[in-house]
Write a structure and sequence with these properties.
349 residues, alpha/beta, Aminopeptidase, OB fold (Dihydrolipoamide Acetyltransferase, E2P), 18 strands, 24% helix
Length: 349
């Protein structure tokens, strides 16, 4: 980078730092070559209100619109920190197209440090899509993100990590819809992100009004989408943050939104047929494996004991495969995840 580019990037950063941050129900607009920040207002309909911090970078040149969504679960910090870094690296003058970043989708969960569920309504935001304008708080957050972010994008990445209780080996959920053109775009985006474990997700595409998940909301509208998982246990260690930063930046290069060479994909471990193993009772979990371990069918994932340490159940793998994540902190409740296991795929198609 020459001195002119460095100075120009520094000037942009100064300008961005002094933008007034407003609150509104609609996504902020930015003139070509500029950026805007705002809080999307989620109105109070009886159980409180919240705000969603977003940034919009509009390039000087035409190109696609990419939406990066972090903080769907409020304890998954690495992608949230990563988007702050991405925002400091982007110069709208060098950008083709538009970048939309949702910095923290679930502010109630973030501030209350809750895993999985929103603290107000007890709902999992990633099970609340496409949301309702008059629903519970999580459903209203989902509605705002659906209408103001997802439906305005050409590509969507829902960025997650292992929640505050999960030790996770980074991987991507790569949907396979059966639409060859859509699937090719998704696959190329997944490879560009650069995580070398990719889970082929063959869930059927839902109706647009019953999508449940963030990525499915985009898919049901014909928008290429995927879910990334990079980070664990509430960590903001640079190792986890950098995986998310580099992935997002390389996807933008792949889409022609940023100049520079696309980092080629790593050799990929393809996975399929994943299963989340849940807890049969409330209790205290003692994992016997770590994230990324290979495990045989029937292999021991861990032991569930009561609060006195008395054995309740031995938790077994449902089939041979790879442990994508495992709960690494003791508290578990009936029906909640203990681990996720995926089968090795012979090939990626």
């Amino acid at each position: 980078m020459n001195i002119q580019s460095i100075l120009r990037s520094a000037l942009v950063l100064v300008q961005l730092n002094f933008l007034s941050v407003r609150a509104d129900a609609e996504l902020p607009t930015a003139a070509p070559g500029t950026a805007a920040r705002a809080y999307l207002e989620v109105p109070d309909t009886g159980d409180g209100m919240t705000r969603i911090p977003v940034s919009v970078f509009r390039g000087d040149k035409d190109g696609p619109t990419l939406a990066l969504i972090a903080g769907t679960h409020g304890y998954e910090y690495a992608p949230m920190v990563a988007l702050q870094h991405v925002g400091r690296r982007i110069n709208p003058k060098d950008l083709s197209g538009t970048l939309i970043m949702v910095h923290v989708a679930n502010m109630p969960s973030f501030h209350q440090r809750t895993i999985y569920y929103g603290p107000v309504d007890g709902k999992n935001l990633n099970r609340a899509y496409p949301g309702k304008p008059d629903g519970t708080l999580s459903e209203r957050i989902a509605h705002i993100i659906t209408t103001q972010v997802i439906e305005k994008a050409d590509y969507v990445i829902d960025m997650h990590s292992g929640d505050g209780n999960e030790a996770l080996r980074p991987y991507i959920y790569m949907p396979r819809t059966g639409d060859l053109q859509l699937d090719a775009k998704i696959k190329s985006m997944a490879l560009a992100f650069g995580i070398d474990h990719i889970v082929i997700d063959e869930r059927p595409v839902s109706a647009p009004d019953a999508t449940v998940f963030t990525d499915m909301t985009a898919l049901s509208r014909g928008i290429p989408s995927m879910t990334t998982e990079a980070g664990q246990l509430g960590s903001t260690d640079p190792h986890w943050v950098d995986i998310n930063v580099m992935g997002a930046m390389n996807v933008m290069r792949h889409l022609g939104m940023l100049p520079g060479e696309v980092i080629p994909p790593k050799p990929t471990v393809w996975l399929k047929g994943y299963q989340v193993v849940t807890s049969p009772e409330n209790g205290f979990f003692r994992p016997a494996v770590k994230d990324g371990y290979a495990i045989a069918e029937g292999g021991i994932l861990g032991e569930l004991v009561d609060h006195f340490g008395t054995h309740i159940a031995t938790i077994h793998a449902p089939f041979a495969g790879v442990v994508n994540y495992v709960v690494a902190t003791p508290p578990v409740r009936f029906g909640e995840p203990l681990a996720m296991v995926s089968k090795l795929a012979e090939e990626e198609n």
